[in-house]
Amino acid sequence: MKYNIDIDSTIGWPYSARYIKSLMAKYHGKPCAVRINSLGGSVPDALDIRQQFLDHGDVTVYIFGMTASAATVIAMGAKKVCMSRQALMLIHPSSTFVFEWAQMNKEDLARLIADLQRDKDTLEKVDEVLCDLYAKRAGKTADEIRKVLVDAKWLTAEQCKELGLIDEILEEGSAPAVTGEVRNFFAASGYPVPELVDSSVLIERGKAVLENVPDSVPAADGASASEESSAEETNATTSNTPITMKKLAFALICSLLAVDDLEEKDGVVALTSEQLQQVEDRLKALSDSEKGLKAQVETLQSEVENLKKGDGAESPDVSGDGGKSADAYAGAKEMFNLVKDLI
Q1: pLDDT at residue 342 tops 90
Q2: pLDDT tens-digit series, residues 167-194
Q3: Among 148, 156, 164, which Cα is nearest to 91's?
Q4: What is the dihedral of CA 201, 207, 209, 210, to 10 degrees?
Q5: Are 25 and 56 in contact (CB under 8 A)?
Q6: What string of DSSP letters covers 115-142?
Q7: Domains of the chain, start order
Q8: CA 223/CA 313 separation, integer angstroms
Q9: Where are the alpha helices (DSSP H) in 139-221?
Q10: Which residues of 233-247 are buried (b: 16+ CB within 10 A; e: fewer)?
Q11: Can you say whether the dihedral through the CA atoms of 314, 319, 323, 326 is positive or negative?
Q12: pLDDT tens readout for residues 225-271
């Protein structure tokens, strides 16, 4: 779909009220489609942009990714709000920066307290305005919306639809990724970090479109690739179907995937293609380790045989590690073969 305006950064800069006004002027008297994927920014700019959308009268907003704070405010001015099923939305109380680094006497402290109280009063008024505009959009009372605002939790498309903040859920889009860098940004900005891993709903969204299963990963029932393909055609399944494990060893698999647990349903555990790739990578590492240790053991054994052929007293253990290399090799091989048998 073609969007007339794409807001994908901070509200206020670069997407100021004046800049959006210049863009909106091109669509006077025409429908305007606005795509939003922004973590927010300036509330004054957001309130102005929201009013611009209201004044225009025919703006449709499409929400993708992780849209939060002031970015949700501008969406409330649209005639229609659509949200990707793979997107998240965050509404939360307003905030302001506070910088103080000084040694103060009681008069200084009194002035600081007075300034902070004024800021607090201002934020309370801003929150009242936000609750009111969200409530009008949702057809709810300000008190009902205030509870959601104070909770400050990321909302799924279904939750937003149930609240009345959006009008339609779109099937297009992709699940947002919360990397370490993004998590750090959320923390620094005062935003709650969405717990994608712990939410079964969002996990299923993340699994919505699985990649093709790697050819090097055998079918769960030991069938060949052609047999598996034939079975898939017969059962009208696709390569996006999760592979099931008939032999379960939760502790081992969880260790390989670096997770605490795996969801089980009807005695079956489903792995995504990403998880399968992680297991395969770990198996390859174990295989490489096995080869390396085997080579070391063979070298040491060869050295021992050469020493035995020479003159002198009985040779001591020349492995240098009391045979630990051989033990490690055996352990790595056992682990490698065990994991291969599990999938």
Answers
A1: no
A2: 999 997 655 655 555 555 555 555 666 6
A3: 148
A4: -170
A5: no
A6: HHHHHHHHHHHHHHHHHHHHHHHHTS-H
A7: 5-92+152-206 (3.90.226.10), 210-343 (no CATH)
A8: 57
A9: 142-151, 157-163, 180-189, 200-206
A10: eeeeeeeeebbbbee
A11: negative
A12: 444 444 444 444 334 334 333 333 455 666 666 665 667 666 666 77
- Neighbouring-strand partners of residue 6: 35
Fill in the DSSP letter of residue 155. Answer: B
Cβ atoms of residues 243 and 343 within 8 Å: yes
With beta carbons less than 8 A apart as the criterion, state whether 134 and 165 touch. yes
Looking up tokens 């005695």 gives 267
How far apart, in Å, are the Cα atoms of 27 and each of 13, 24, 30, 81? 22, 5, 5, 18
Residue 269 forms beta bridges with which residues? 264
Residues 268 and 110: their CA atoms lie apart, in Å, by 64
What is the reported pLDDT for 233? 44
Tens digits of residue pLDDT in 116-132 = 999 999 999 999 999 99
Two tokens, residue 46: 């957001």
pLDDT of residue 210: 39
DSSP state of 193: P
